[in-house]
Amino acid sequence: MSEAWDVERIKEEYGFDPAALKARYLEQRDKRLRSDGNEQYLEVSGDFAVFAEDPYVEETIVREPRAEEIEVVIVGGGFGGLIAAARLQQAGITDLRIIEKGGDFGGTWYWNRYPGAQCDIEAYIYLPLLEELGYVPSEKYAHAPEILNHARAIGTHFGLYPRALFQTEVTDARWLEEAGRWQIQTSKGDTLRSRFLILSNGPLNRPKLPGIPGVETFQGRAFHTSRWDYDYTGGDASGDLKGLSDKRVGIIGTGATAVQCIPHLGQAARTLYVFQRTPSSVDIRGNQPTDPDWVAGLEPGWQKKRMENFNTLVTGGVSDEDLVSDGWTHIIRNLLFMVNQEGEPDLSPQALAQKMELADFQKMEQVRRRAAALVEDPETAEALKPYYRQFCKRPCFHDEYLPTFNLPNVTLVDTDGKGVERITENAVIANGQRYAVDCLIFATGFEVGTAYTRRSGYEITGKEGLSLSEKWVQGVSTLHGLTTRGFPNCFILGNTQGGFTANFPHMLDEQVNHVAYVLSELGARQKTRCEPSAEAEAAWVSTIIEKARLGESFFAECTPGYYNNEGKVNERSRQNSQYGGGPVEFFQLLAAWREEGTLAGLELS
Ligand code: NDP
Fold first, then answer.
1. In the CATH hierarchy, which top-level class contains the domain 209-284+395-442?
2. What is the pLDDT of the chain when averaged over all its residues?
3. Is residue 218's pLDDT more than 80?
């Protein structure tokens, strides 16, 4: 329970009424809550499978199927798979193979090549293995081509190209008990057998479409942002979409992706309609080229130190310095400043939560003022103001997005939380009005709350024929988010039941170091397989559920989105959530487990 607001004092001091704001946030949430939750979206299969096809491949690889016996198979050649391969090699494990659906390394950055795509976390902490490669990104928030090149550079640096099977999808993974091996089959007819299996499918790998009535009837050009159709739009990731100069374009969705590509669409299209259900919080970007003097002064270990500093600050921790110093860390600085200024170092958890909410209101008021200042038409500006707490949705940072709505060819079609009504052969219907379009772009995000094997696209079968889909039908069950009983020697990288951080590669690195440690220890103990004990797994699941309850009231009050399972917070979503103690605590917990040195909770044989 939060304490009552001292409304008059806050109004005088901060210039807003917290009770009124809170009521408005809840009203906005209620407008958007819907009974179908994740079911409102369409899977990109069947008639919609075309939306997931790879538009970037220039030449289809034709090769003989492989039949191989290796130590480690890694599924996914994004940052997770790359860091895994790099760290395993550093630990002396070199017999590995990476299976990647795309035509190259890069994962998210292979697929997301939309115009304007950019890292929204500082590149110096987001791009992995910078010190190992002796590389510093060219700007504070690197653009997608540079990030994709860095993924390729990791592949080259660690000699991973000869070990990768590109344009290859896993179709089945099965544990062979007698052989003590995983058998992995692929779309190219390969049969690989490996002692260990590392799954790094990516948390946002499967595009989703909105289940808007009539979506299947559209006859114009349509694509998802993660499969950008440059053949049609012209241009490249830096923009210059010449093909759209005579086109009426509609874009559905205004999340982090849309915020980055809409400025380019606005520049290029004859007419652009932006269909908005919920506005994003769009703060200052302030990108800068990298200062060579700063680079010259970097000491060994700088990247890890910077990553940890950011991680501490964005999860409410205290540090004397703010190395990244940007919109992500600002809200926490603001909070600490408020607490210190008022000389109340020993606040109760409730009082601290209230301060936190106050700092959040203050931050979001600034974000809303920014919309009002940058957008000329007052009605449009009002519609672009987000009314929810900053971390209910991915906060965005962009300097050209809001001014795009001042262009005469750009129209914001705000649906006041309702979404698009209908799609016809050649138009989008919203608010009862028809908007004729030649091209429809879905910036509608990726599957998050659906079953793991649906998102990975293949089944994983463990001991005694138990499939992962069956095992997790009531909810995910793991030890540390990484291993699951009945699936020996299988390691799953990702957020679920692990620690969530906005800087996802940081989490991947921590997980991979943990896996490398376990594999090395197995070798040292002359063991060949491990899986969690039933007790250890049950205890971890209980911890996850218990900790999830702590953050529940925050997410229950949020406007729906993938951060809160589309507004459906329940026992299953609790179990499928991340470690509620935050990533700093989670990383410490893993480190302490390694430090203890007994591989506690793992059964070895
Ligand atoms: P999101 O899921 O964040 O956004 C989807 C958008 O589609 C939302 O605005 C949603 O509205 C809207 N939408 C869905 N259904 C409808 C409908 N029926 N009618 C109208 N609008 C609809 O996807 P994104 O691709 O934008 O971002 C996904 C994630 O990718 C981000 O959260 C972030 O983690 C990551 N990302 C990271 C970047 C980086 O630089 N590192 C850059 C871009 C993305 P509503 O909000 O109402 O649901």
1. alpha beta
2. 94
3. yes
Question: What is the model's pLDDT at position 554?
Answer: 84
Q: Do domains 67-206+448-531+584-604 and 209-284+395-442 have the same CATH topology?
A: yes
Q: How confident is the model at residue 339 (pLDDT cuts 50, 70, 90)?
A: low
Average pLDDT of the segment spanning 542-562: 87
Give the burial string for 179-197 (b: 16+ CB within 10 Å, else e): eebbbbbbebebebbbbbb
Instruction: Report which ligand 1 atom has the smallest distance to the Cα of 119.
Output: 40
Euclidean distance between CA atoms 321 and 314, whole angstroms? 13
Question: Residue ranges per domain, the chain?
Answer: 67-206+448-531+584-604, 209-284+395-442
Q: In this structure, what are the phi and psi dihedrals at residue 247, rounded to the nearest 5 degrees? A: -115, 150
**Which residues does a 6 A CB cutoff place in the pocket of ligand 1?**
32, 118-121, 204, 210, 212, 252-258, 260, 275, 277-278, 394, 419-420, 443-446, 561-562
Nearest CA to ligand 1 atom 2: 445
Predicted structure pTM score: 0.95
CATH number 3.50.50.60 given to 67-206+448-531+584-604: yes
> What's the CA gap between 74 and 500, in Å, rounded?
22
3-state secondary structure of 237: coil
Both tokens of 107, joined, read 């994962």
Token pair recorded at residue 201: 């499918």
pLDDT reported for residue 220: 98
pLDDT value for 1: 45
- Tens digit of each residue's pLDDT (9 = 90 or more) over 163-217: 999 999 999 999 999 999 999 999 999 999 999 999 999 989 999 999 999 999 9
The residue to mutate among 40, 394, 568, having the most atoms of ligand 1 within 8 angstroms of its beta carbon, is 394
- In whole angstroms, give the CA distance from residue 105 to residue 76: 8
Question: How far apart are the CA of 252 and the centre of ligand 1, in A?
Answer: 10
